[in-house]
Amino acid sequence: MNRSGRRRLLSNLVVFLCAAAVVVALVPLAFIFFYVIKQGFASLNWAFFTQMPKPVGESGGGMANAIVGTLMLIGIASLLAIPVGMLCGIHLAEYGAGKFAFFVRFTADVLNGVPSIVIGIFAYGLAVLPFKRFSALAGGMALGFMMIPIIARTTEELLKLVPSSLREGALALGASRAKASFSVIVPAALPGIMTGILVALARIAGETAPLLFTSFNNRFFTTRVDQPIASLTVQVYTYAISPYDDWHRQAWAGALVLVGVVFIFSVLARIVTKRLERMHRI
Amino acid sequence: MAIRKTPSPRRSADDRGFRLGTGFFALLVVLLVAGIGFELFRTSELTIAKFGFNFWRTKTWDPVSGEFGALPFIWGTLYSSVLAMLISTPIAIGIAIFLSELSPGRLRTPLTFLTELLAAIPSIVYGLWGIFVLVPVVRHLEVLTPPWLKKVPLFSGPPLGVGMLSAALILAIMVIPFSSSVAREVLRAVPATQREAAYALGATRWEAIRAALSYGRTGIMGAVMLGFGRALGETMAVTMVIGNNPQVSASLFAPQHTMSAVIANEFTEAADDLYLSALIEIGLVLFVLTVVINGISRFLIWRTGRVVVAEEHVPEPLAASGASA
Asked: Which member of A38, A187, B211, B323 lies 3.0 to 4.6 Å from B198 by CB, making a disulfide possible if both were Cys?
């Protein structure tokens, strides 16, 4: 074969390999979805949402306490992370050019890559060790720390999408920067900021590692923030590594609920972002 | 009417307050990272003082007799992560090339969404799938290993299913989307003129792609490192399939342990201060490791972005023709 034929062959081979890489990545995705849906739907029923866990040997029961627990943990995390993350994002969007902003942005990205288990240890030192007690508060804090960089960076990106003419208009009318930001720019980007919050929620709703030794687990129903509390993820973990078939079924049902929640959050976030980008491009 | 050159005093006070007020919250993010480092260091002082560097050189992990050697954990973490990167890097770069250079327009958005969906699946779900689906498959493969191959240290040991191979495979799947999405962004930011110049010289498709790859190589290296950082810290899925046995073994079939897995497993059992301090020191090193890896990765990605932006904005006519191509 001549030289140019060889080059073309190599080129086609690489194109083929790249397409194959996509398929290779989609195969495990399909398998995971297939098993979670198949096994999950086989075990998911109304009782899963309304009943408490049953002891070993009794079939049935549900994860009502864990579902409420997860909602509470997410709530605490949001209370902590949304104000901090949003205001940090506003600062980065407004004063993004300086050295300080650069450093903050860099730190936020690095924080985003810190393993969740390490953040769990930090929350343990902050909120478990001093009180000698696992608590929902400690778990919520750990999740909140993880949300902050995600919210900050998405808020910043989406505020920057708002056309500068809006800001200039407000400033020209005599508004201060604070006024321009809070009453013109932030409202214009609000759907986008909501998206950032959704993305962050999707990420932390499925977190297990930082909860193992902060919110711990609880067999009983509780809504107290100073007590250990059950969560879907820790419950799925406990059931998954147990030797009982009944518990394995419950774990699959829990996994289906988790994947469903995360999937809905991700799709919603995607739709809103797309719409926002289109809106501001025109 | 007189035109005031500077804003009114009230307005500039407002501005300063706004800047400092929001700046305080930005500072909180920095303080948070510094706080994590400080807190981990403070609470692991006991073992740092007692064992020093030997902590990382010895292999015996016996909490009952107060002997703590963390070598098996750092070995397991590095070994599993490196294996995962060996598997995932070619796949991730292939995906990035396909999605940014080759994909038909109509497939691009759904394929991007699907590959990035891998990142959205919670770790615990990967772990559950790993225990009940992947591990049995791996065990089956290990049983089928021919005897002559079992003599090689890499494939020695009983076929358990749980072990290094399962952990590396599941990690590889999990980090693909992190590397591929950043690599795709980097490739998309490479100016079209790079490829056009290659084509103009008679390059084939692959040769043009290679030109784009070499232009964005720093950023792609950053993308791979980002995936590596993820792999180092991944906890739940790994601990569920790796076997949690602290030993230093080269065998893919051997059950081993990782830094994050030992923290997840033993933290609530750590009854005495020394044990707790040992686990926190492992966390501290994991923290430092991931901060450094992520820092380098972000720096590399940022640098490529800056070079690309700078070159895109200088020659106006070229940039315009590139955009219309």
From this structure: B211
